Amino acid sequence: MIAEHHDDAPLVLLANFASSVSVSLKASEAVRRWSAQAPRKIWLARPGDVLVTPVPLSGEFLRYAGLLLGLPDDAVDIVVVPELPGEGMPKAVRHHGLGETILRLASRHPRTRLLPINLDGASVALAAELGIGVFPFAAGRPAAGALNAVERLNTKTGFREVAEARGIRMPEGRVCRGADLPAAAARMLGRFGRVVIKPDRSSGGHGMRFLSRRDAAVPAERDSTGLWVVEQHVPCTKEVSVQCVVEAAGPRVVFSGEMLTHGGAFTGYRSPLRDVAADTITELEQWGLALGAHLADCGYAGPYGVDALLDTDGTLYATESNVRRTATTTPQAMITRLSHAAGRPNPAWLMARRTSRHPHTFSQAVRRLHTTQLAYDPTRGEGIVLYAGSTGAPARPSTDWRYAVIGHNHRRIEELQSEIAMALNLEGS
Hints:
With 429 residues, the chain is α+β, with helices and mostly antiparallel strands. It has 4 domains: 11-151, no CATH class; 155-168 and 235-322, 2-Layer Sandwich (D-amino Acid Aminotransferase, Chain A, domain 1); 173-232, 2-Layer Sandwich (Dna Ligase, domain 1), CATH 3.30.1490; 329-423, Aldehyde Oxidoreductase, domain 3, CATH 3.90.1170. The protein has helices at residues 28-35, 59-69, 89-95, 99-106, 121-130, 144-153, 156-166, 181-192, 278-297, 329-341, 362-371, 410-423, and strands at 11-14, 50-53, 77-80, 113-116, 133-134, 173-177, 194-199, 209-212, 227-232, 236-247, 250-262, 265-271, 302-311, 316-322, 348-360, 383-385, 398-407. Strands 14-13-10-11-12-15-17-16 form an 8-stranded antiparallel beta sheet, sandwiched between helices. The radius of gyration is 21 Å and the shape is globular.
């Protein structure tokens, strides 16, 4: 587990999904879609914390999470900062005049610190304005080298440079400006037959395209100066990742698993890795530690991950790094927290996003899990958690469900996955 609290000092959990670290803030639809996931950050909270979120959390979801975590009512203060299109969350805090509210809440404890979901210069500046440190940096704020490393290693080109220097295998690729994308794609298609085109800075598969020689020519990008990567397409059997953390003692592997994707977009995760050779897992973890050594040299502290593909011939290829809290970080922290409380550490788990054929309110879905005995049961240390919840009040029926499956082994995970598909009438079941 990545420890979000090292002591009893409270945290201001800044759910700054609107950050230029992960994607261009001009990609407003992507930013809004990711920001809608902010309610799940409640799983990181302890009594006395403050959650700063771009969307409200429904009362029913807060009660649901509180019961599972053992959080008393009103143990965590929620500050809603409405989105400011094209801008990061710290600027939205100032625009809406909410800085004083956050300062008042943070000032209740002398050692309160800010934990940004995306570490960037804007969040560090906000912490300075509030007069609090940035977690988990011992000096209270990250050095310039750490911020530069985060900025660079959340790009495809930045990771390619470090991967080459650290001996991390990657698919062959070409970096180009948007104006040169048609020519670069044509040359790579001529060599490999199939390619993947990626924006230099993106996450969750945003902007990724798969092309073959049969497809029409790639047009030049409207932003002619933006960077793109054209990579050899690797036919793969699995998409995997290793998630690590840089601590005072150095980098450490936290967990690894298989990414579930559709069309390059992230849809879920299964951990631990199964049906993968032990030496392949070792190589993946070594790559994670090698990147962590570089980050530590830059003064960085906190979570990061390396994504990779397993070729049909068994060769592992790294594809990108994410130096931030990713889609798996919070669910894994939640699962570890619940499992340790139940006295059943190190479970198998799966997180997924699926669509139900008919809409349910959040409360209806929770009741359905309880009546079918699928809801997470701490006495058994297994079951289903609807970790993303619902936003706003009153709650509206939804067909979009994000859930975690916790079990003793992968076979039990598959059984529970089949049962929730039937219980909520999920598509594909």
